Amino acid sequence: MNNVVISGSKAGESEQHTPVEAPNDLRSVATARILLALGEGEFEGGVNEKSIYLDGTPLMSQNGTINFPGVKWDFRSGTVDQQYIQGFPAVESETAIGVELKSDAPWTRSFNDGQISAVIIRFRWPSLQEQKDNGDVVGYSIDYRVEVSTDGGPYIVASQQGVTGKTTSNYERSVRINLPSGNGWVVKVTRLTPNMNNNRIADLMYIGAVTEVIDRKMRYPNTALLGIQFDASQFSNIPTISVLAKMRKIRVPDNYDPVTRTYSGIWSGGFKIAYSNNPAWVTYDIIIENRFSVGDKVGPQFVDKYELYKIAQYCDQQVPDGKGGTEHRYECNIYIATAAEAWQVLRDIASIYRGMIYWMQSQMTVRADMPRDTDYIFTNANVIDGTFTYSGSDERVKYTRALVSYDNPDNNFESDVTTTYDNALQRRYGDNVVELSAFGCTRESEAQRRGKWAIYTNNNDRTVAFKTGMEGEIPMIGHIVAVADDLISGVRIGGRISNVSADGKTITLDREVAAAKAGDRLLVNLPSGKAETRTVETVTGRDIKVSSVYSESPAKFLQWTLESDDITHQLFQIVSVKKADTDSIEYEFAGVSYNPSKFDFIDTGARIEDRPVSQIPVGGMEAPEEVLISQSVYVEQTMAITTMTIGWSAVKNSVAYEVEWRKDYGEWVKMPRTGQLSVDIKGVYTGQYLARVRAVSSAGVASIAKPSMLTDIVGKVGEPPSLAIFRTSSKAFSIYLDWSFGPNSEDALYTEIEYATNAQGTNPSFLGSYAYPTSDHLMMGLAAGVEFWFRARIRDRTGNVGAWTDWTYGVSSVDAEELLSYLEGQIGSGELAPGLLEEITNDVAAGIGDEIIGDVEDSILGFLTGDDENAPQDMLWYAGDDGTQESFVGNVTITSAYNDQDYSKAKQIFLLAGRVEDNKALISRVDAISVSRDEALAQSLSLISVEVGENTAKITSEQTARVTADEALAQDIQALAVTVGENTAAIATEQTVRADADTALAELVQTVSAQIGDIEAVVQQTSEAVVDLDGSIKANWQVKTEVNADGRVVQAGVGLGASIGADGTTRSEFLVMADTIGFLNSIDGQIHTPFVFDTVNDTAFLNSAIIGDATISYAKIANDLQSTNYQAGLVGWKLDKNGVFENNGSDSSGRMVQSNNRIDVYDASGALRVRIGKLI
């Protein structure tokens, strides 16, 4: 084991060192100079040390204490001619960086704005110190360099500095780097002193921010400015700066005092400039301002300023503030700092006064939910079908509590939340919360009013929808309309005016209102389109006299509604108006429930008064207590007519009654619903009658039926008489029926007709009922020779039926002349036959080439010949001029374009051409497009043309596509044409497709033609398909040939067509146009024609025919007429043209031969048994 010896000696004593920390000797030399654009001017002002805040603290407290010494500031209100703020000779834009600068990683940044003059780099050191080995804390030094590269050039040192000293808190300094001339720069900052990276040296260095500088004294007209300057040592970062100021002056009425918020006298319609936070005038000013809003599109003449005047007065009215005082109802205290859609900004501002803004009838209109008189009346009489449709929201979306956020000035305008609720609704629906943001609101009391309004409107959201005619042009969105709906009220409280007295005070209604009395209020629509109310003075039947005249005299047929303390109409605010999607004049309206008493409830908490809009009782309807049947007799044109009257007692709250009756226990006859207490049935027959009546409420609820006693009525005896005459006559493809009525048929209701296929009337079919006194009918759509048997009877107005006539025979016509005449009329009335008969037009091929040549010749000919001094030489090649004859060859392309706000067009012309004397060769193409607000068009024309003297050959093409708001069209035309002297030949094809709102069409036309002088031959084929919105459809195809010589035109053609008319009638046709129509066959090389039509002589030639069923009006037999089984002397029959008739029967039991003067009868063995007539 080794021994380790440790030895040493004691040193002399020394004094212990106490570490020393050097004082901080670095202070920030950065000065913050900030120029703020507060907003669009001119501001009212009111800016001082107490209204400027740094990080939420004012420069001066309310007691006069300075919170930030050494701060300098200046304010400009934003006038047009304001001066620049001294101390801000440049435009500076600072960007925060916050990046650590390390010795091994230089910091670089590019600047590409060619307007900047310099950049300012702000450096920051969180702390700077060094701890020595003996524990002393002293300062430290860091060197750094700034270099600039201009337009991609080398870096050049712009500044090299260092910092030496000690600090334990944030230290900043700035360096300005002037930039040389150029368009782009790269600034590089390099830390020269290495990072020590230990805990004894604090040497972190940061790039705090970079500022771009434009050396220019800017006035910024029309912009409110705040310039502020302070020592950066007071803040660790740039503080948030806020200003409490009266902002932009706006347009207000010239009779308005914006300080007291009062109006004096009658407004002339003029404006002045003043500060106001009335949201209605803020709305007006923003709409018409053309610097930053839509004023360049919407001038003052398009704004309903008088409606805004009413809204502004409503905003300025005093309401309780909830703290024992009063305040203005609405204020607009909002700072719009970012761009937004104009409509959204205007809607947000309108929401302050519970408004809506919209464009209608060429005017920007603003409406607010505030007290308003009734603008118009709608009753069951002036809405389509007399129908109103009601709806409401589900109880699950009923709000009972509102949380409303607003900008609280006591909390530096930070958002606070206030709450409001409705106890009754919470007990009913529970706690359903809605969260709202009160735009522009800085008062808690106003925020609560907005919350109460939201809860009320959400829970009273019953809506109505209806349609009307031309009256839909009158009410606008936001208008209040009175709805007098009998279905809801349970009584009739509305209708139309029947008459107006000369003095305009007595109005005659179209019905009597039983409950009308003096003191009620009569509301009527006036001819100008507004509604007015007057107090009722007296009631005499349907005549209502009012206490004072209306502002204009009411007119007949306009609407009225009567309201009292017991019953009144409903009120709705219109929220939607639109044109119905129909061809008729029809408008669709939607409105939401409106109660005038809600405004006092929202503003002051007053009790809401529900309007008595219905008298419908809860539960079912009672039946009439009594139903009676009676009879009366009166004389009409010497005839005694018996009338049965069914009467009943009135039922409370009923609006109509349903009545039924029957005779002798027959079927019940239902009468139309009535509002009277009796009905009459005229011309009844003797018998026992029973009636029953139901009462119906306005909700459509019917009571049980109350029956009458079985009552004997002595009236007409028997049944309705039979028809005096009932007959038929034959018509082309139809049967005509006519009849006449006998005595005592005056109370006939209609004539019933049945038809059958045999004389016994087995399984008859119902033909129809024909209202009295109709006395004929045409049964159409039959084939020729169709047979039916018909019968008819009378049914009278009380439901009694008479006896049937006998079966009458009828047959559709078999007259060939009548049928052919009818068919000719039918064929001629269609489109296929006229198309075959008209002469062929042959001008397609001729037009296209001429159009192209005319389009390009003027534009290009100068270029090709070298006559144009501005000819594009780099696009042409010249063969030159030989001095006596002109020749050239070359090509050129010309492009043109035009564009403005409403119309754009472009065209390109290409030409390749050559010419020697009069011989020419040309290839050309013209492409053009044009676009406007109403139409887009594209067209392409091309031509290949050669000419030698007067001989030409052309190939042309034209394509066109055009679309408008109502129509789309595409067309393609191709043509080949040659000409030698007077001889021409051409082939043309034209294709067209077109569609619009009503029709879709496709058409193809192909034409082949040849011509020598005036002699021409043409072949044309046409295909067409058309579908129309009215339901008509057609498809046609035809081929025509035509020759024309010496003025004589000869045509032949064939056409196929199928169509369905708008009325549902169908038609298909196969037409042939020719002098001779034949069917050919070749037998042993010879033409065989078994079937030929000679249309010139109206003759058909048939070599052989088998006919199943023939109807012949007149027949001529050229030789013999015989049966198919005829064998002479054995079977069958034969009639020869000499008048000999041989009848052999079918069983060889004998035969008979008949001539013009003798009849011979032979037995089976051939022996003559009987001879009649000439015996020898």
TrEMBL record:
Domain (Tip attachment protein J) ranges: 340-500
SUPFAM superfamilies: Fibronectin type III
Any matching Pfam family: Phage_Tail_Tip
Region ranges (Disordered): 1-23
Domain Tip attachment protein J HDII-ins2: 91-216
Start and end residues of each Tip attachment protein J central straight fiber domain: 1019-1158
InterPro entries hit by this protein: FN3_sf, GpJ_CSF, GpJ_HDII-ins2, Ig-like_fold, J_dom, Viral_Tip_Attach_Protein
PANTHER family linked: FELS-1 PROPHAGE HOST SPECIFICITY PROTEIN-RELATED, GIFSY-2 PROPHAGE HOST SPECIFICITY PROTEIN J, PHAGE LAMBDA
Name of protein: DUF1983 domain-containing protein
